[in-house]
Design goal:
Number of strands: 2
Strand order of the largest sheet: 1-2
Distance between the termini: 48 Å
Protein name: Bifunctional inhibitor/plant lipid transfer protein/seed storage helical domain-containing protein
Order of helices and strands: HHHHEE
InterPro entries: Bifun_inhib/LTP/seed_sf
Shape: elongated
Keywords: Signal
Helix content: 25-40%
Structural class: alpha+beta
Strand content: 5-15%
Number of helices: 4
């Protein structure tokens, strides 16, 4: 390669790096977006150790089997101990870690992810609540369902 070509390339690179952006530049007015993929990765890693406990649907109300009431049962002679024990929930270390990282996720990330849901699953204003355990409720608030111009889908032909 010729020495003059190398100088030209170096000058062009320096010009491009040091030249201030014009007023019509796409970079001038954009606000920095949160690092959503890394936030989701941290939450995914922290919450991956949680046990999967599916919530069963509520059971239907039971109907009486007969129209006649059952006869009263004879009194029992056993002594039942009735202790008023109030069980307080203690958060495990895994739940605490998952909750801590979930609270760090930016609502913009969640809303940008959920804006891709089908229309029948969305509403004008959203409040998505995630319950990690009884001690940890996180709510993400999203505005109306609009996409930013760079997320617009191509028009239908």
């Amino acid at each position: 390669m010729d020495i003059h070509n190398i100088r030209k390339i170096v000058l062009i690179v320096i010009f491009l790096v040091l030249h201030p952006s014009g007023s019509r530049s796409q970079w001038s007015g954009n606000q920095p977006s949160p690092l959503c993929p890394s936030q989701f990765a941290l939450v995914n890693h922290a919450c991956s150790l949680l046990p999967f406990l599916p919530v069963s649907p509520p059971s239907p109300p039971s109907l009486p089997l007969s129209l006649h009431p059952a006869p009263p049962s004879p009194p029992e002679r056993r002594h039942r101990r009735r202790h008023a024990r109030h069980h307080e929930y203690t958060e495990t270390a895994v739940e605490e870690n998952c909750c801590r990282w979930m609270k760090q996720v930016d609502s913009v990330c969640v809303c940008d992810l959920l804006v891709r849901l089908p229309l029948f699953l969305s509403r004008p204003v959203h409040h998505y609540t995630i319950m990690i355990d009884p001690a940890c409720n996180i709510t993400f608030e999203c505005g109306s369902r609009t996409r930013s111009p760079n997320q617009m889908l191509p028009p239908f032909p």
